[in-house]
Design goal:
Elements (H helix, E strand, L loop, with lengths): L1 E5 L20 H10 L18 H4 L5 H9 L5 E4 L2 E3 L3 H20 L3 E6 L21 H11 L5 E5 L6 H7 L5 E8 L21 E6 L5 H19 L3 E6 L16 H18 L4 E5 L5 H17 L2
Parallel strand pairs: 1-4, 4-9, 5-6, 5-8, 6-7, 8-9
Antiparallel strand pairs: 2-3
This protein binds zinc ion.
The site of zinc ion has 7 residues, from loops.
Organism: Leptospira ellisii
GO molecular function: histone deacetylase activity
Family: Belongs to the histone deacetylase family.
Length: 313
């Protein structure tokens, strides 16, 4: 079986206002694609067709008002929030980015892939049920998790290693005992959520894990947190599949994050999760791009992450 790779030119259509440069730009993906096109493994990946997601599937996670807001931005220019501009075609990028997760899930269920990665934008983990926020329109990973549940997956583990806390994903699953949300992130930092004592609510109490890390944390601190906290928690939960919010903005060269993780560090973290997944859930892992704003560091990290996915498929 092979690794799935989801990408579409639709993801390039969302652009910040021409006169206002934005970190979350289409150059991020173009640089990754340029690098990947030279990688020996790339031609062997299964590349599903990406279609814009339906409002019906989006409504598994988002409110009608939220979906409508993105839809109504078609042909317009403006700001959803201070950090999240939109232009005429941004809605298409958002609908197709969310659709890429559906395409990977379908390919997994059909037995075409064992694991997969979506090189998508806009990212998703800050988007709440009813709130567009922090470059994120739809919560791509949350939608994939709900879609997996529709197809009989009961226990799903979401690991978020973006340098920012995924407040949106946490909010969506905070009282859900079947979807575990674990995040390792810089703290205190944007969006200021993700402290140790946020552990879930009601039936979901105990299925949220936050591992806040001080600024300047290196590879060793991340590896230790994975060994001591994240991997054991994942093993106790016994998920049927693992989803990764794979942001690479904890990289030492990232202009937004304040961490010191290297490309080799991300390779090691990827390897730790995939080898654990191999024993826990037959290696079923779907990974979604979140942040990562030094475009060369991002492209390096995406390549090493894909190398690990490839070696486990
Ligand atoms: Zn981030």
């Amino acid at each position: 079986m092979s690794t799935g790779f989801a990408y579409s030119d639709d993801f390039l259509q969302h652009n910040a206002h021409p006169r206002v440069p934005h970190f979350e730009s289409s150059n991020r993906l173009l640089t990754c694609m340029d690098r990947l096109s030279k990688a020996a493994f790339f031609p062997y990946f299964y590349k599903p067709e990406i279609r814009p997601i339906s409002a019906e599937i989006l409504s598994l996670v988002h409110t009608e008002y939220h979906i409508q807001k993105v839809q109504d931005s078609a042909g317009q220019k403006g700001y959803f929030d201070g950090d999240t501009p939109f232009t005429e075609e941004s809605w298409l990028s958002a609908f197709s980015a969310a659709g890429s997760g559906i395409a990977l899930v379908d390919a997994l269920i059909e037995g075409k892939i064992k694991n997969g990665f979506s090189l998508l934008r806009p990212p998703g983990h800050h988007a709440e049920r009813d709130r567009i926020m922090g470059f994120c329109m739809f919560n791509n990973i949350a939608i994939a998790a709900r879609y997996l549940q529709l197809h009989g997956f009961k226990k799903i583990f979401i690991l978020d290693w973006d340098v920012h806390h995924g407040n949106g994903t946490q909010e969506i699953f905070y009282s859900d005992p079947d979807i575990f949300y674990a995040s390792i992130h810089q703290y205190p930092f944007y969006p200021m959520t993700g402290s140790y004592d946020e552990i879930g609510y009601g039936l979901g109490k105990g299925t949220t894990l936050n591992v806040p890390m001080p600024v300047d944390s290196h590879n060793a601190a991340y590896i230790k947190a994975f060994e001591k906290k994240i991997i054991p928690t994942m093993e106790r939960f016994e998920p049927e599949i693992i989803l990764i919010s794979a942001g690479f903005d904890a990289h030492k060269r990232d202009p937004l994050g304040g961490m010191k993780v290297t490309t080799l560090g991300f390779e090691k973290l990827s390897e730790m999760v995939l080898s654990s997944a191999y024993h826990l859930c037959e290696g079923k892992v779907l990974s979604f791009l979140e942040g990562g704003y030094d475009i060369d560091a991002l492209a390096e990290c995406v390549e090493v992450h894909l190398t690990i996915l490839d070696s486990f498929s």
